[in-house]
Amino acid sequence: MNKQNIVLKLSKITNIDPTFLQRFWQVGKLYWQSEEKFGAIGLLSILILIVVSTTQIDVIVNTQKGNVLSALTAKNSSTFWETISYLLGLYLFLVLVWAAYNYIRKKLTLYWRRWLTEHFLNHYFRNRSFYQLTQSQRELDNPDQRISQDIFSFVDGFISLFFDVLYATLQMIAFTAVLWFISPNLMIVLVVYAVSGTLVTAGFFGKKLVKINFDQNKKEANFRFGLVRLRENAESVAFYRGEAQELSHIKSLFDLVFKNYNYLLLWQELYLNGFVKIYEFIPQIIPAVIMAPLVLSGQLDIGKYTEAQGAFLILFWDMYVITRTFNQLTGFAAAIERLAELNYFLKEPKNSDSCEIVPNSTIQTVENSHLAIHNLTLYTPNYQRILFHDVSLTLQPAQGLLIVGTSGCGKSSLLRAIAGLWKSGTGTISRPNLEEILFLPQRPYMILGTLREQLVYPQVNTNISDQELEQILQKVNLPDLAARFGGFDVEKDWSDVLSLGEQQRVAFARILISQPDYVILDEATSALDIKNEENLYQHLYNTQTTFISVGHRQSLFKYHQQVLDLCDGEKWEIKCIG
Ligand SMILES: Nc1ncnc2c1ncn2[C@@H]1O[C@H](COP(=O)(O)OP(=O)(O)OP(=O)(O)O)[C@@H](O)[C@H]1O
């Protein structure tokens, strides 16, 4: 039977949406088919062994408890003390084994979480999916929360559920014989009671609670993101004096958390837990009611009665495992939904949104030694708007191209297309390998780290000396930057402590450090005064670098050999200078 059929059969038995089981399988199988599978299977086997052996010991403990009562009734002191010592030894052994079990179980959870987190992170960064995700029309909220929180909920939830169900099943096998042997009637009552309880829980509370938990995760993540966003934009908000607006927005996000949680409390704590408490109480009296006549008439020994009552309660506890762990289960199911969505997005070919609308219509990218554009027509990512038609140009090595045009005409979008971030449109872009091109956006990206790491970014290992770094800082007119902050190895929140113009100069220093063959500057000097801007362009002009700039200032023209004017609407023209 293939996996698809197994999933379908399971879904029929459990009355669960088959696509839900498929989603569970898609995420669940990843780790168990990975290179870590042998270690994981080893740990899993040890855990299963512990569970199997402790179930056997539980049966012995239950029988010995009955023996203690029988010895007391028969006033047999030596049997009583022998059984008590035996019981103590068994309990001590159980405690030690359970300590080891819990430790290994948490370790397995940790290893699985580490592997799955790395797996999702690798896919999140592959083909710049983290960027594509922000461009997608399909709603996929808070991928960060899915990676940081939902993976843990999934792994922890699965391991807990697996062992709860395994332990319950083994105990059922072991104790069914005990109870059946003493009282078949009690056994039949128990099965009917446990099955009906499980069906009510799964059928009535199931879908409702999964949905509420799913929404809760989403709303909590939105609230957290609102606070993070405020922190990231603290200065702008403070300048605007936008506290009232921000406060009300963040409060409204929390209000959604509050309302949904209230709803969750109602269903989880009041309805479900209320049901579970009543449901748990009744079995305490069922054995007494059914077996009392036998004990009173002398047909059943009090020790056997205790043994049967113990077996009944254990079996009841096992049979209603689904009901009792239902709260956990719904959180686990919500995590599966959220991870499966992310997994699907990260696996599917990019720009699929676009392809659904205009099939086979994407910009072709060809690797070449020089940069050229042939009949490029560019749309916004979901083909909603055309930005420009049929643009063609060639850029000779060591030359400069300046792109100008009115705001919103598509200047930055052309750079996005060259970088391969946007593909909606037609035509061909020939360009060198992206490794040879350095992009400088208008808002410089300052990494969290030391000044040295900041300057050599996006490279990580360079053997550049402090002296060379000092020289480069001189060139970009930041001669005292390292001294001001205590050297190159001091960590700061650089986007906070440097002015925008200083950040643009640090970003420009990256060009002089990494010396790429191609540089693309998207208004990368817009925050600088003309003198500083000219100084930077003069350095760039003196190198053999080929560069494309987007800018508005007339003073930039003299550093470029060609100007592409995207004009407005769908017209464009190219001019040669000098
Ligand atoms: N992710 C996106 N999805 C849809 N449309 C977008 C997206 N990003 C930008 N646009 C739209 O594409 C158009 C071109 O944007 P672009 O950033 O290229 O303009 P620009 O010419 O660089 O403008 P400016 O000079 O103001 O920076 C704008 O109308 C913008 O609203």
Number of E-state strands? 12
> Mind telling me which CATH architecture of the largest domain this is?
Up-down Bundle
Alpha carbon gap, first and last residue = 74 Å
* Proportion in β-strands: 5-15%
- So how many helices? 21
Mean pLDDT: 85
Structural class: alpha/beta
The CATH homologous superfamily of the largest domain is named ABC transporter type 1, transmembrane domain
| Distinct ligand kinds | adenosine-5'-triphosphate
Percent helix among the residues? 55-70%
Radius of gyration of CA atoms, rounded to a whole number = 34 Å
Tally of discrete structural domains: 2
Low-confidence stretches: 10-15, 351-359
CATH class of the largest domain: Mainly Alpha
What do we call the CATH topology of the largest domain?
Answer: ABC transporter transmembrane region fold
Cα shape: elongated
Give me the side-by-side strand order of the main sheet: 6-9-10-4-11-12
Largest sheet: 6 strands, mixed
Question: How would you characterize the overall build of this protein?
Answer:
This protein has 578 residues and is α/β, with parallel strands linked by helices. It folds into two domains: 3-24 and 32-123 and 140-348, ABC transporter transmembrane region fold (Up-down Bundle), CATH 1.20.1560.10; 364-576, 3-Layer(aba) Sandwich (Rossmann fold), CATH 3.40.50.300. It contains 21 helices and twelve strands. The structure holds adenosine-5'-triphosphate. Adenosine-5'-triphosphate binds at residues 135, 380-381, 387, 405, 407-413.
